[in-house]
Structure to design on (554 residues):
């Protein structure tokens, strides 16, 4: 059955510590699965099929069990459960710290929060008392999110997800818990988050569904209040699991093309840029048009003051990458006329063209459900290729910005993918970013090979290790070719991938107006005539072919 959520509880010889919800179907060997199905790993057993990291060119076989599973089927949730469970406390801490997440808090007192997350939702959150657990629910009575208003029964509660916490501390803790779970390749987990007296947040422990005990992170043992926590009831996970199954059914209908009421897929963006004077100082973007205009500025907190150094384009959403590219080009030309009026000024984009000022190329998608499956496809097929193309000066943007899976839901019903740097460096990079985002939104179920799930490439991404990261490029190109919409978008994607394969990287010191063909004052043009050169990664031999010119005028 397409669009069904299954549970994998491991082999009979290794059952989970706690039983799953009785209402849920347990997958058995021999049951056929499709791309529209999902498999939630209950406990810490490894899923015997494919988890989206590698391609065998046909049926995949698990070496231990000999079970054959159709490649890419199903979408596996909690794919990292077995790996995390096999690691020690320090190894888990190192993985989180690589992404800029603090762990442990042995030297700092503070408040401890228990946060249950499931597929980008905060299912439950509470502050743990140091003296005794006074949450109002005892061991064995079930731990469930507060019933939604209007729900007549627990069975109906699942239809409306609980609201995200409004308390500032709980909101921060919930945000960190979801981010930590995502980095560990977990979709469902309970996390212990400590808010230190200094205001810093730390991950102190985690517990998987189907496991009775928390495991410490970055420390040898758990805090006393965490040790007293009873095992979570399986009912904690029932409402979000029902919501996910409903989403799977809707996505299966969309993929099959049988939905006449589905909203059209639309893409928007708000890429950032800087205006720099001839002496290298930043020219304030506050004069471009304000905080909400199509050409405007973004706010930056500097000490006790608010500044607007960063320019931002806010084109109207479109249904194609080409249409949005045209709108971006018009707005960028308008920004140049308004802001870069003086000779010697230049427009800069990329990841970090000025030390300490990180720029983003946020992409907005609507008409498609926000899922971790889609986010991980964007991480692999959008974030990694752009990291391969970026100037070495921009690698300092991570991990404070540019982390995998960075997203934000939007009032229009869609979401914003915030991981990418500012792709305004050239029309070719813009074409790729917009084109691959639409391809992933349409075809994430076909993007089976996900290097971002692998420790080797995740570490290379965060550390800016291009020599290692480029090793996954052939896999990414092969993965894109399997997507149904690849042929209609290959003209947007292949030029950048060809240039990256040739060792080309963009140069954030150059004026982006040259690459976009935007008129410039004569003096600025002479100062920046080097804009028609291209840098190459020292780890690859530059090619003499013209492919690398895609980073120039488009």
């Amino acid at each position: 059955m397409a669009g069904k959520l299954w549970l994998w509880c491991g082999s009979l010889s290794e059952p989970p510590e706690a039983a799953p919800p009785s209402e849920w179907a347990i997958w058995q060997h021999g049951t056929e699965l499709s791309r529209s199905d999902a498999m939630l790993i209950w406990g810490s057993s490894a899923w015997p099929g494919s988890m989206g990291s590698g391609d065998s060119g046909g049926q995949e076989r698990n070496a231990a069990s000999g079970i054959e599973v159709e490649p890419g089927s199903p979408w596996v949730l909690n794919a990292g459960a077995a790996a995390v469970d096999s690691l020690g406390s320090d190894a888990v801490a190192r993985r989180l710290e690589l992404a800029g997440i603090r762990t442990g808090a042995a030297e700092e007192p503070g408040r401890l929060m228990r946060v249950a997350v499931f597929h980008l939702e905060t299912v439950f959150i509470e502050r743990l008392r140091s003296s005794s657990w006074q949450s109002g629910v005892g061991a064995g009575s079930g731990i469930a999110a507060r019933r939604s208003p209007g729900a007549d029964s627990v069975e109906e509660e699942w239809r409306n997800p609980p609201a995200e916490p409004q308390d500032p501390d709980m909101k921060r803790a919930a945000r960190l818990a979801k981010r930590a779970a995502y980095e560990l390749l977990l979709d469902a987990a309970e996390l212990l988050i400590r808010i230190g007296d200094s205001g810093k947040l730390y991950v102190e422990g985690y517990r998987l569904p189907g496991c009775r005990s928390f495991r410490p992170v970055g420390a040898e043992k758990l805090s006393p209040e965490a040790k007293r926590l009873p095992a979570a009831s399986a009912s904690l996970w029932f409402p979000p699991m029902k919501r996910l199954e409903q989403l799977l059914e809707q996505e299966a209908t969309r993929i099959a093309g049988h939905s006449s009421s589905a909203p059209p897929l639309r893409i928007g963006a708000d890429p950032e840029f800087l205006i720099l004077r001839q002496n290298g100082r930043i020219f304030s973007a506050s004069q471009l048009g304000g905080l909400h205009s199509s050409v405007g500025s973004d706010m930056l907190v500097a000490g006790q003051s608010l500044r607007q150094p960063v320019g931002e384009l806010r084109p109207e959403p479109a249904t194609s990458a080409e249409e949005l590219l045209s709108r971006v080009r018009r707005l960028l030309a308008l920004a140049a006329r308004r802001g870069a009026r003086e000779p010697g000024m230049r427009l800069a984009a990329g990841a970090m063209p000025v030390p300490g000022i990180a720029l983003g190329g946020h992409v907005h998608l609507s008409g498609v459900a926000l899922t971790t499956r889609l986010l991980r496809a964007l991480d692999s097929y959008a974030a990694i290729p752009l990291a391969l193309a970026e100037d070495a000066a921009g690698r300092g943007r991570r991990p404070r910005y540019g982390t995998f899976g960075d997203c934000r839901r939007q009032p229009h019903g869609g979401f914003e993918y915030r991981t990418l740097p500012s792709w305004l460096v050239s029309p070719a990079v813009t074409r790729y970013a917009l084109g691959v985002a639409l391809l992933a939104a349409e075809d994430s179920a076909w993007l089976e090979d996900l290097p971002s799930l692998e420790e080797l490439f995740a570490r290379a991404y965060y550390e800016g290790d291009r020599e290692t990261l480029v090793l996954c490029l052939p896999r990414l190109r092969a993965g894109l070719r399997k997507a149904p919409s690849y042929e209609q978008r290959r003209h947007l994607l292949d030029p950048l991938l060809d240039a990256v394969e040739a060792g080309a990287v963009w140069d954030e010191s150059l004026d982006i107006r040259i690459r976009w063909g935007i008129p410039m004052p004569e003096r600025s043009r002479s100062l920046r005539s080097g804009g028609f050169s291209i840098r190459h990664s020292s780890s690859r031999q530059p090619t003499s072919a013209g492919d690398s010119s895609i980073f120039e005028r488009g």
